[in-house]
Amino acid sequence: MLKMIDLPYPLNALEPYYSSKTLDLHYNILYKGYVDNTNKTEEKLKSARESGDFSNIKCLEKNLSFFGSGAILHELFFFNMGPAVPTEPNLKLMEQIIKDFGSFDKFKSQFTEASSAVEASGWCLLVWVPKWNKLEILQCEKHQNLTLWGCKPLLVLDMWEHSYYLQYETRRPEYINAFWNIVNWNEVNKRFESVTV
Asked: Which pTM does this prediction carry?
């Protein structure tokens, strides 16, 4: 059974860039919903296996992909933010960013523009692609569409309206710009280290 992760900081730790009210809603209601629905879907799949009745399998597999991906991406999102952390990647990740994007500023511009251009509900991700031995930036619709098989998420930004609307309303660019102030590069560096060893 999937369990909710504990936030690594108090609800007000990301202010003024990310309000405690938004984080409370995002974590305690929306993220909890993804975890609960992943568990409900797993139970239904278990029942289907035991009974041999797979008449609802298409819906169940779709729900598992949607809710499970939502739970995983939210966990990455919550942990790649934090107060009082480095303002840039470590040397190893910075060198890779410069190699793959030309400079940190070019990477940041591309990530910002890709985030802003996410259609409807979705995410923007910096990922490591082992097959290509390089970093890429991806947009992900919903939680599970437009993924690149085998990629390892390093930095994720939730672009669903529930992530920013209470504080930023329709001002998506302000939300994205504020995000850069609370990126937990320690966590991103750690993820990069773990996928490139």
From this structure: 0.92
